[in-house]
């Protein structure tokens, strides 16, 4: 009943009515129950509900989603948080079904290279789980001293692994200790940025209610992913495809479940051809969606095995339509390279290495940054910087032997401190 109560409250806020119509309450409750039974909502019923609460266009729907997401960050009850997440999922599905052919008034090609694209702020690296790369909700410390989100590290251990995912160290035990100080920092960051912070402790009754709401949230996310991928398969114009891919990008931005649903729906092979698009917005959305999907291990496999996926991402690193697209393509390659077997395969691809080095060449002062890291960074940073310097020097030497301009790579002049005269 939490979803119904929440929907009623939203009705009062949006429609300025003293009390929502009983018929609307019945419709919402029936819709949620059908979603839990994996029944896809009818378009007419979605239109009826949104019209009743005063949502008549994609802008107002997006605003309501953003408002709910801000409220989620202030909730201390898991059952209410779960209910609100489910309602956000329902609104997002309704937005895709009802308004996918109508862009927001602010949408335009001029907005392609603007950093603030309406997405929630990215969490600082120290607040993200090293496994999922998502904001940690329940940070715990493993025996190696590294902190992970409980759900992610539990899943790691459940797969039969007994090593630290970040360091590779064999763990003395699999005990996990809550990192309360970091959790307080995460809560503070969530409050300041209006981001949802799920609470993991709850009474049994709250947990039971949250499970029901979560089931609805998961089912509506699965439906949204399936709908978007089907819509993309029949989107023949760049403008129509761009709107659908943007929604895929947003859906896959957070949550391993969302990424799994999008990957399972078959999004990867449909995104690959769009990477060659000359439309700046479409190319950026497509490569960002692939980056988001690649965070999930199963999707890494889908991308690496998709025909032409690596070959499509690679040239974007040097000749993408925007600098953001080039950066994102490089991040996608690095994400794929986090798996050892894929790293070896990518490393044997001369085009991948060449484009990465070209990307480095375009950064002013990169040689000094690498040199500083080798001299003053952490042990791990010094090793990585030295490796990058060696790669650049080898590539520059090979290019010079072939008479190419690659020898001009600024990073090729970097010499590890140990090799310099004292």
Structure summarized in a few sentences:
The chain contains 20 helices and three strands. The protein is mainly α and 422 residues long. It catalyses: S-ubiquitinyl-[E2 ubiquitin-conjugating enzyme]-L-cysteine + [acceptor protein]-L-lysine = [E2 ubiquitin-conjugating enzyme]-L-cysteine + N(6)-ubiquitinyl-[acceptor protein]-L-lysine.
Give a verbal description of the structure.
With 422 residues, the chain is an all-alpha fold. It has four domains: 1-110 and 203-225, no CATH class; 125-193, 2-Layer Sandwich (Herpes Virus-1); 235-349, Leucine-rich Repeat Variant, CATH 1.25.10; 363-419, no CATH class. The chain is built from 20 helices and three strands. It has helices at 2-15, 22-36, 43-52, 58-72, 78-99, 150-158, 180-193, 204-233, 238-251, 256-264, 267-271, 280-294, 297-305, 309-313, 316-319, 323-336, 340-347, 350-361, 366-376, 379-401; strands at residues 139-141, 147-149, 177-178. Strands 2-1-3 form a three-stranded antiparallel β-sheet. Helix 1 (2-15) crosses helix 2 (22-36) and helix 19 packs across helix 20. The protein is globular and about 75 Å long. The N and C termini lie far apart (73 Å). The model is unreliable at 15-19, 101-118, 199-212 and 405-422 (pLDDT under 50).
Total beta-strand segments: 3
Percent strand equals under 5%
Individual helix count: 20
Query: Averaged pLDDT, please?
Result: 76
Overall radius of gyration: 24 Å
Low-confidence stretches: 15-19, 101-118, 199-212, 405-422
Largest sheet: 3 strands, antiparallel
Could you say how many structural domains there are in total? 4
In order across it, which strands form the biggest sheet? 2-1-3
Compute the separation of the termini in Å: 73 Å
Form type: globular
Secondary-structure-based class equals mainly alpha
Fraction of residues in H or I helices? 55-70%
